[in-house]
Every structure is written in structure tokens, then in C-alpha cells.
Specification:
heterodimer; A: 285 residues; alpha/beta; B: 220 residues; mainly alpha; MetI-like fold; 8 helices; binds adenosine-5'-diphosphate; binds magnesium ion
Amino acid sequence: MLKAIGIDEQAELSKVPGQEGNRIDTGTKPIVKYTGVTKSFGDLQVLKGIDLEMQPGEKVAVIGPSGSGKTTLGRMLMTLEEPTEGTIELDGELLWHTHEKGELVRAGEKHLHRMRSNVGMIFQHFNLFPHMNVLRNVTEAPRKVLGLSKEEAEERAVSMLGKVGLADKLKMYPSNLSGGQKQRVAIARALVMRPKVMVFDEVTSALDPELVGEVLEVIREIAEEGEMAMMLITHEMDFAKEIADRVIFGAEGRIVEQGTPEEIFDNPKSDRLQSFLQRFRSNGI
Amino acid sequence: MWDWKYAWDILPQLLSALKMTVWVTLCAFVVALIIGLLLAFAARSQFKPLSLITKGVIEFIRNTPLLVQVFFLYYSLPVLTGISIPAFYAGVIGLGLHYSTYLSEVYRSGIEGVPKGQWEAATALNYTKAQTWRSIILPQAVPPIIPVLGNYLIVMFKETPILCAITLVEMMLTAKNIVSQSFRAFEPYTLVGILFFIISYIASLLVQRLEKRMNLQRGK
Ligand SMILES: Nc1ncnc2c1ncn2[C@@H]1O[C@H](COP(=O)(O)OP(=O)(O)O)[C@@H](O)[C@H]1O
Ligand SMILES: [Mg+2]
């Protein structure tokens, strides 16, 4: 049923003048689609041609050595980094570009603002607002950006903070929270915006080892709810294996291998992935 | 040498001039605060011509003497435009504009002190630029620079004698007028110095206390 709708919509879309035809052949309409994306910082090309699709609700784990461009990949989806070449589509619409007279041009802030409402991101270093208490950290954006009333925003925030286990910390300031608590606030803050895709960029790597579990537990629960697509950039291999629908292994700016968690972790094909996993296991992580 | 009675007699005149001096300083400070913030924004603008012009204007104002600037506002501008500005406004604008270039630098340091992650979090939550400035950046950038702004207020206060050159009746000009009538210079100028010292010293103690309090708050 869903697939049929997807195909019809595809057919519709490919008729739109200025839009490229024969876009996807998987049947469902992807929520995220990178096409030939590269990214350079000065002379350094960190992404060298990424083609990647995520389906609505799909949990995609992104693994790979550090410096391979994982963060940059996620930041481009959050509009924090502009692709050098290629396009990214979000929910069937170009993220960084618009069509003008049949030509692809860099989109303006207005377009980016509209598109961004579909995406959220959790950062390695939390980036909570230090001058606001926990409750305000979570209610500010729903009020200011989504235009919810104070009551609506607080209701949403309190229930989300309850979900991440922080219902009793509403009046605390971020500086008085542990790393694990900070990250859970950050997760609640991003979730109340109800994005369709969420980027998690190594959200546990700045945490003390004993605090990692509580954050992963929260992410696991969110993943189980299902409707939000998740890009999980992570070094937690066991966790990736457990909750990802698909795992992407990237190295040196390219996607080297991708597949189900079983394919990637139990039957790695490429030498690079094999040695990467080897190194991980021997480090006992 | 020092005539107490004479000093006592001229004190009321000097005190009322002190009120004027403080008033000019405060008005000029408000001008500097507002224009300084605008300059800081403009200098950061993505729109290159605006940021270049702004930086040029800042350099120009900083590298010309305040005295020349207030002379220009008071004596030359009326000739050029036909609009004459009362001495008080010329003084407020001149002093305020001059120090706005320094305050823009103070704002800049405050703004750059806010970690990049704060901007990114705001973008990730889809704040507009204006919302990001208002609720995320400025509330974090301003508190740490308040003591520095306080110090500039004191510096501006001590610059006000320059304004006697455009006939603004602040303390210095009042003292001068007294001297020209009585031909006694020692008491008036000494009193002016003492009054400047008292006000500046009290203000700097307040700023120090403020600074301590803010450090405590940030430490917790
Ligand atoms: N803003 C930037 N300016 C210059 N180089 C950058 C910038 N951001 C990332 N890089 C470089 O891009 C490469 C990939 O970085 P990143 O995407 O963070 O990799 P990963 O997350 O996989 O560790 C690294 O070599 C990094 O130094
Ligand atoms: Mg990274």
C-alpha cells in the first residue's frame, strides 16, 4: 500500500519541470537522499561522492574511523555545513538548493529555515543553553520556533523530560547536571521539535563510561517508537548492531560498505571494514 | 594659599556643573552602547561591503582625536549642512560615537566568547538569526562584559573636559569661567580634580564589586 503511493508520487514528481526524472527505484519515497555529495574544506576533500538514502523511520548507523567525514555528513543534513557538490533531498525536496528557471541555485535562508524543521541533531558536547534551566532549554524552541503557547510547550517538555528520566530536574541549570543528564536534556530538547530525521553525532563519546548506558537506553526507547528516522554516527558497535536497520561503513570520505547489521558485523566483505572491526574488537570496546 | 571660604563659595556652582557632566556622560554612554552594538553587528555581517565599510568607519573614528570630532560636529557641520547642533547634543553625539567604536570591540569579544556550539544548537532547533541573537547569544555575551562596559563609562566621564572646547558648560568650563572672573585658579581647578576623583573612584569600586559578583556567578 505504502509502496504504491510512493510510486505514484514519484511519477508525479518526475513530471515537474526542472526536476530530474528517474529518481528512485526502491519503491518507497526516501526521507533523506544524498546524491553525489562532496565536501571540501579548502584543499582538503573530506567527502568524495556520497550517495545515500534513508527511508522514513529507518535507523541508519554510520561507523568508520575518525576523520573519515561522518560528522560532516550529518552536519550537512542539519544545514550546518554546505555541500561543495551534489544535492541532498529531504522528504522529496532539495535541502540546499532550489530550482530557478530550470537551474539549480543555492537556496536562501527562508528555504533553509523551512526545510530545517524536518531535521534535528544531538551533538557530542550537548550544547545546552547554560543560561536557561532544564525546562526552559526544552520549552524555548517550541514556543519561539513552533509558536506553541507556554502551557502547550511545557506540557510537551515535561512529558518528554519524563521520558528521558529527568522529570525531577526541571529547575536545575545545565552546569549542575552530569554529562549523561545533560545529553538526555539535549535529546528531549531536540525531540519536542518532532523532526522527521534526527542526527546523533557520537552522543556518548564525551561521557564518562559509567554514564553511557543511561543515554543509550533513552535512544533505544526512541528507536523503538519507530516513526522518526535516525542517523546514528557512533563508535558503539554493539549498540549499532542492536538498533540499526542498516549500517554504513565509511572511510576516507566514501561509503565503503553498507548492509544489515548482520552483514556488516558478522560478514564484512571489504578488507577495510574487516581490519576496522578487528581493531575495534582487539581494543575491547 | 588655599582659601577655604572661596572654595566653599564656588562649590555649589561646581556641583551643579558636576550634575551636567554626569548627565552628558550618561547620555553619551547610552549612545555608545547602542551604536556600539550596531557597529558590532555590522562588522560581523556576511554582506562584505557592509562589514568592510563598518570596519573602515571604526578605524577612522578611533584614529582621529575626539576633540577634532566634536569640533567638526559643533563648528563645521552647521557650515556644511546649515543645521546647527546645540553644544549638549554635539557633545553627547561626539563622545558617544567616539566610544561606540571601542564598545563595539568589547561586544565583539563578548560575542566571540560564546561557544560555536551555541549557534549550532540554535540552528538545529531552527531559531531564526534574530531569535538566536536575542535569546541565545546576547544573554550569554553581555553579562561577562558588563564590568568592561563600566570601566568605559568611567573613562568617558573623565573625557568630558574636552567638551568645554565646544562651550558645553560642564565642570571644566564652569571652573574656567570662575577663574576668569576671580583670577584665582588654584581652588577651582583643584576642586574639579577632587570631584572627578570622588565620582570615578566610587564608580570603579562599584564596577569591581560587580565584577566579583559576576565571577562568583559564573564559577558556580
Ligand atoms: N570546519 C572544518 N574546517 C576544516 N577542516 C574540517 C572542518 N570540519 C572537519 N574538518 C576535517 O574534515 C575531516 C573529517 O572530519 P569529520 O567529519 O569530523 O570526521 P569524523 O566525524 O568521521 O571523525 C577531518 O580531517 C577534519 O579535520
Ligand atoms: Mg565526528
